[in-house]
Amino acid sequence: MCRKPPIQLEKGTKIRYNGSCKHSLICGKVNRLSQETPSYGGQAVIEGVMFGGKHVNVTAVRRKSQEITFLEVPRSDQRWVTKLRRIPLLRGIVSIIDSSAKGSKHLNYSAEAYAEDEVTPEERAQRELEKANEAKKKEAKEKEEGFSIGMMLGVAVMGILSFVMGKLIFTLVPVFVENFLFKDAFDGYILHNLVEGAIKLILLLVYLWIISQTPVVKRLFQYHGAEHKVISAFEAGDELTVENVQKHSRLHYRCGSSFMMLTIVLGVVIYSFVPWDNLWDRIIQRLVLLPVVIGVSFEVLKGTNALRDVPVLRYLGYPGLWLQLLTTKEPKDDQVEVSIASFNRMRELDAAYEQGLIKNETVTGGILDPVKG
What is the pTM of this model? Predict the structure, then answer.
């Protein structure tokens, strides 16, 4: 039987995880995914994995010392955001923007941890001293001025802007390329839309292949595979051990890579319902319909995930799975261990919230820091 350790709330706590079941409140097997079982998601970060729970988002990162450290951030969704998440089409846009904002915080944490491990011991000691001084100044300032959300908003805005700019570039560049190469090659806007979609797909595949050749991104894609394997093992009701998790596929229907593929395919279909006469009409149409493409793609993604066990309809999700052959790599055992640690810690803290072991007002001053997150 697994022991339930007390929830640690000391500020700056670093937890060393050795894969043992005793480090988690959540042990043993779970039932196969059902309406009662939560549907979890996550993302790979530099040398780690983030998982989002009902009450908290947790990132686990493997350090050079082989220690696994955690960033644990309570979810604090506004009431209006929660309501929008229940509205079809709108919930897709809200979820994507929200994920971009929150995901950037955890990616920043992993990047800082990675950079910290690359410096010499002397440089690290100097940085720790500077951080300690900055923390003292910040704490004194917050006591005088009260809790400030400026830092949290700044990181969130940067995450949202990065997503929006990336989406705009990926949407508009294929338009200019297709117009430059095939403007007078043939008539009919639908055919031009098809060629534009093909160019967009080629650009995406080439981009993913190029970045996957770099060591850092290759390891990032391995952690992406580890994230998928842990979720699949959980949904299958398997005990979360490295051996059990490694048996599962690194591909998963409910993935952002599948979403990217859907935006390309469904974009061609949606754009074809609205004719255009010239390049500027085409650009304006793409910008206006972009939220529609995102919303519809999100709904279709949810549908393909719900139908993945239906013999014929499961093939609807295959294009997204094929793209994941580029965006995921087979993880090593130590990477799976990090993913398990992150997932177990998230489930542990979620359970602690449900049992009343953690209160929002208690967490704010501990390691569950909404500003750091």
Answer: 0.75
